[in-house]
Amino acid sequence: FAFSKLPSDSFRYLGWQDIEQHDVRGNQLHCPRVRDAGPSEEELFFRGEEHSLKKRKQVTDTEKWQKRLQENWENCAELNLSFQDLGDLYQVENFKRILRRLIRVEKLWLVDNSLTDLSAIRLPRCRELNVNKNHFTSFKQLPKIPQIQHLSLAENNIMTLSGISDFRHTPLESLILKRNPCEFQERYRQLVFSSLPNLKMLDGIPKLPEDCSPPETKFFYKMCTIL
């Protein structure tokens, strides 16, 4: 079995380039890479890539505005910004800049981006958010998502359920918390459903009668009388 090369394989040794003349808009990309002008000249020098440097022309306000319109993030309804490899500060800041412009996005995937805090971001129309495999430690670090219906937080580092009640007044129906430390908390499912009465599904399992039982009732079910 022979593996075929990726379409980008022939460009793997090229330096950072700005493609100035194109008609592709941001909401037409299936999984765009978010980058802001590439590494600094100093960083490229220390990487031994000084040969790829080129003089950057002065960008006018008109050109900045044209670039902003071309990105067209404000009209994105579904967007996948997963696997961005955000290893540098300028990448993180540019990434958050784009997130702030997603005022109409309804479905958003941010999987495996090493994200730690998006509490300053607001996604007013987002109904489905997938932030699996990041570094969130609390529900307080999530973006503001008042219209959220489906939220996936698998494989983060959320220790407790503190802050989960903030979603009580949202239309949240489905929540995934698999492979977070809070999953091993005693009476985990009961605590989640008591905090979110309107929740219908947790970790892919529908709400069960025992999930609504008071703690005392569940305790008696576990008792064993030996005569």
Automatic annotation (TrEMBL):
Coiled-coil parts of chain: none
Gene3D superfamilies noted in UniProt: Ribonuclease Inhibitor
Organism superkingdom: Eukaryota
InterPro entries the UniProt entry points to: LRR_dom_sf
Keyword terms, alphabetized: Leucine-rich repeat, Repeat
Keyword Heme: no
PANTHER family xrefs: GENE 29133-RELATED, LEUCINE RICH REPEAT PROTEIN
Protein known as: TILB protein
Source organism of this protein record: Rostratula benghalensis
